[in-house]
Amino acid sequence: MVDTIDDENVGKGQSVVGPYRRLFNRPGVKGFVIAGFFGRMPMSMLGIGIVLLVEALTDSYAMAGAVAATVSVTFAVAAPLSGRLVDRYGQARIAVPLVLTHGVSLSGLMLCGGLGAPAWTLFVTGALAGASALSLGSLVRARWSHLLGRSDELHVAFSFESIADEVIFVAGPALVTALATSVSPYAGLIVALVSTVIGTVAFAMQRGTEPPIIPKGESSRSPITIPGVALLSCVFLAVGSVFGSVDLITVAFAEEHGAKAAAGLLLSVIATGSLLSGLWYGARRWKSSMRSRFVTTLGIFALGVSPFALIEHVGVMAPFMFLAGLAVSPTLITGYSLIERLVPARLLTEGMAWLSTAVGFGVALGSWAAGRLTDLYGSSSAYIFPLGCALLAVAVGVGGFAWLRPPVLQEQS
């Protein structure tokens, strides 16, 4: 497989949504897509929901960021292992017990908070909730890869999934913030818990589209040993740090300006920009190489984040967050597409899980650092941190550009 995709704009008279509509002609696709959507809805709700709950209980963004970071770190550590287990034993056999454990652990976190238990109980239950969280997006993309193989349609499918992710990030933060500030600090996390349990169990029941398991003795090599995968993981670590820090700082920014309930809307604006750009990006056929597009979108992302520290009004922040969001979805789409080309098909779930791990560590670092910086210097000054992380992502991507070239002949099994 070459490193380029033929460049032609969407055909004359063809709507932007046309390539996406054709994906759903295959049997079983609608079932796993819908279930997967609801199962991973909490990925945009869990972090900010924990921040809002713990801050309401402790009056400390540092504590809130630390607990959210604990969840992210334990998820990041466990994600490759759960991905390998899925590749070895199948999606259904691993997903169901994991999501049930996650639901119990998250319930324990909320219960400890409500009972006023010692702070360490929040970290213990948070760690268990993170370790049992499933990278459901990786499982969904693995199903698409199994159904479509390495074809141009897979580019469209991965783009669709990134668009679905952005819909989640548009709706999730606004929903969890509204529930936590208007109903109860616990309400957002309760909705997240119900959604992930029901959605994941329903996803696991869609057995007809489930990828085959790895035969014993064929999974000794971890995808992280592939230089391109290691490089992408480093880039996504920095990108995740931007996500984690911007989430927390924006909550504080909105509160400092007397509009705490607007925090979710501001974060949704970023996701809206990403959704629209992803819809356009996925409907095109590209001549430029994926690795060239990847480093270009990283640069645009860093440029979009740069004004945040200079803005002192919620209304002014919104359009700049929209502009920054325009680079998010193309970056994620291209990153996952590169993983699909770099990693043998039999290890694809674990390979994609390494990106989730990198983002999880990044979100943890970003949440922790942003909480400390916000408490010490205020939200505007704290926005310098995500800018630095975005610039680091560009530097790593450019520096390791050669490692991102997919092999001409990719292993198929």
Structure notes:
It comes from Streptosporangium jomthongense. This is MFS transporter. This protein has 413 residues and is mainly alpha-helical. The chain has a single domain, classed as Growth Hormone, Chain: A (Up-down Bundle), CATH 1.20.1250. 72% of the residues lie in helices and 0% in strands. It has 17 helices and no strands. It has helices at 18-21, 29-39, 46-58, 61-89, 91-114, 119-131, 136-148, 152-182, 187-204, 227-256, 263-282, 290-305, 314-325, 328-342, 348-377, 379-382, 384-399. The longest helix is centred in the middle third of the chain and has 31 residues, at 152-182. The radius of gyration is 20 Å and the shape is globular. It starts with 17 loop residues before the first helix and ends in a 14-residue tail after the last helix.
Shape: globular
- The value of Rg in angstroms is 20 Å
Q: In which range does the helix fraction lie?
A: over 70%
- Residue stretches low in confidence (pLDDT < 50, at least 5 long) are 1-13, 408-413
CATH class: Mainly Alpha
The CATH architecture would be Up-down Bundle
- Span between N and C termini? 15 Å
CATH superfamily caption: MFS general substrate transporter like domains
Question: If you consult CATH, what is the topology?
Answer: Growth Hormone, Chain: A
**Count of the separate structural domains:** 1
Write down the overall mean pLDDT.
84
Q: What's the SSE pattern? A: HHHHHHHHHHHHHHHHH
Number of helical regions: 17
Pfam family, one: MFS_1
Transmembrane segments: 31-54, 60-82, 94-116, 186-205, 226-249, 261-282, 294-311, 317-339, 351-371, 383-404
Membrane topology: Multi-pass membrane protein
Domain Major facilitator superfamily (MFS) profile: 228-413
